[in-house]
Design brief:
mainly beta, Acetylcholine Binding Protein, Chain: A, two-stranded antiparallel sheet, 1 helix, 35% strand, elongated
Length: 109
């Protein structure tokens, strides 16, 4: 196996312009505080936050290239209503951030 093949196998791609992209999946248990004031007819925003604390925004920039967590995502007892992504980083920020928000309504059945 060549070095190029091993690099691509690990999800690392280098574009012709020198842009390095690392793609990967993350599995974990996430928790959030719920606002239950309208229970059992409540809606919630479930947030996934990623940050790079080791490297600054000049080294790491989180980008969303059209990911859609809504496709194939199921949460028992909830209806997926939408999702949105927010990224930040740049010369004025010390770290790069990526936040993905999944908007859910409680399944009333």
């Amino acid at each position: 196996m060549t070095l190029s093949q091993r690099i691509k196998e690990r999800g690392l791609n280098v574009d012709d312009d020198g842009m390095v992209r690392l793609e990967g999946r993350m599995v974990g248990t996430f928790t959030t505080n719920l606002n239950l004031r309208e229970f059992p007819f409540d809606s919630q925003e479930l947030k996934v936050d990623l940050s790079s604390f080791q490297y600054g925004p000049e080294d790491v920039l989180f980008m969303d290239e059209g990911s859609n967590l809504r496709e194939g995502l199921k949460i028992t007892g909830w209806n997926i209503m939408g999702n949105e992504t927010h990224t930040s980083g740049g010369s004025s920020n010390e770290t790069s951030h990526y936040t993905h928000v999944i908007i859910v309504d409680r399944d009333e059945t």
